[in-house]
Specification:
This protein has helices spanning 2-12, 16-32, 36-52, 59-75, 82-87, 89-96, 99-117, 120-136, 140-157, 160-171. The protein is an all-alpha fold. Helix 7 (99-117) packs antiparallel against helix 8 (120-136) and helix 9 runs antiparallel to helix 10.
Length: 179
């Protein structure tokens, strides 16, 4: 509730410095509460605002959040409650068919913007997301390449919890078979 009040206040008073991050937090909070449409609208609005104002620093994080949302839809997220799915049935139906494609687009956009602002850790997380996406598509060789890229970044940045996850995913991929 308080974050919504902050977003309203910042919008009304044209406070862009606090309003932008507040809108992003509000979006993630809405998605977390199962209000997918509201969260998506806030995130897309934030992307548009950042692009319009040439503020690229936050774009990798927003694109990563959207990539992860669509990845969960593509995976058939088991954590989503029946109530959340029912509440968002239109959203789920609308996006389920293209969720993998949308996840890929957002992860690649996160990588693009991360390169522009040197957000190496977010780039590693986007590569990891692409690895998971290709794993669920059973494109194991491509998944492995993305996991390796994410591992290199996580080692470089000392992101050890992410490193452990990526190494585990890479290690659990089916081994190559040769004829």
């Amino acid at each position: 509730e308080n974050i919504e009040e902050l977003v309203s206040y910042c919008t009304l008073n044209k406070n862009e410095f606090t309003g932008g991050p507040a809108k992003i937090i509000s979006a993630i909070n809405a998605i977390d509460k199962g209000e997918y449409n509201k969260g998506m609208e806030h995130l897309q609005s934030s992307i548009d605002d950042c692009r319009e104002r040439h503020r690229y620093g936050i774009l990798p994080a927003i694109e990563l959040a959207l990539g992860n949302l669509f990845l969960e839809i593509a995976k058939g997220d088991q954590k989503a409650s029946a109530a959340a799915i029912f509440k968002n049935i239109g959203f789920v139906i609308k996006h389920a068919i293209v969720a993998g494609k949308r996840a890929s687009e957002h992860f690649n956009a996160a990588i693009h913007y991360a390169d522009q602002v040197n957000a190496i850790g977010l780039k590693g997380q986007a590569y990891y997301g692409l690895g998971i996406l290709n794993k669920i598509k059973r494109k194991y060789e491509i998944a492995g390449e993305y996991f390796e890229k994410s591992i290199d970044i996580f080692q470089e940045t000392g992101a050890y919890s992410y490193l452990d996850q990526a190494e585990n995913e890479l290690g659990n991929l089916p081994q190559k078979t040769y004829a």
